[in-house]
């Protein structure tokens, strides 16, 4: 398996969310809505998930082994860390867009 493209974006999210990403695998399969989270021990990548009726979150897509999880996390974090920091104007604009939704 080869991650052939990573698209990442910084966000001024609530709580610890600092970015969103999508990966393309082998130029033929895309996984959207990977989240870059600021954790106690640094950044990590959370897989796409949805909230269940009981309030728990369940992954929609996820790697089934440690090697693949590490490969995805490394690719996403490398792309994310190359992004410029959000400017104050972009943060204000993003907050305004969130209010309008």
CATH class: Alpha Beta
**Oligomeric status:** single chain
Q: Name the beta content range.
A: 35-45%
Largest sheet: 4 strands, antiparallel
Tally of strands: 6
Helix-strand makeup class = alpha+beta
Quickly give the CATH architecture. 2-Layer Sandwich
How are the strands of the largest sheet arranged?
1-2-3-4
Q: Report the average pLDDT across residues.
A: 88
Low-confidence stretches: none
CATH superfamily: Stage V sporulation protein G
Report Rg: 14 Å
In helices, the fraction of residues equals: 25-40%
Based on Cα principal axes, name the global outline.
globular
* Number of DSSP helical runs: 2
| SSE string, helices as H and strands as E | EEEEEEHH
Question: Can you tell me the CATH topology?
Answer: Arylsulfatase, C-terminal domain
């Amino acid at each position: 398996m080869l991650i052939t493209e990573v698209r990442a974006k910084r966000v001024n999210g609530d709580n610890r969310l600092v970015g969103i990403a999508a990966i393309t695998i082998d130029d033929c399969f895309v996984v959207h809505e990977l989240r870059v989270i600021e954790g106690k021990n640094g950044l990590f990548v959370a897989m796409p998930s949805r909230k269940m009726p009981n309030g728990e979150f369940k992954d929609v897509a996820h790697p089934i082994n440690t090697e693949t999880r590490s490969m995805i996390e490394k690719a996403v974090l490398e792309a994310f860390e190359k992004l410029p920091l959000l400017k104050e104007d972009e943060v204000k604009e993003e907050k305004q867009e969130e209010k309008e939704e």
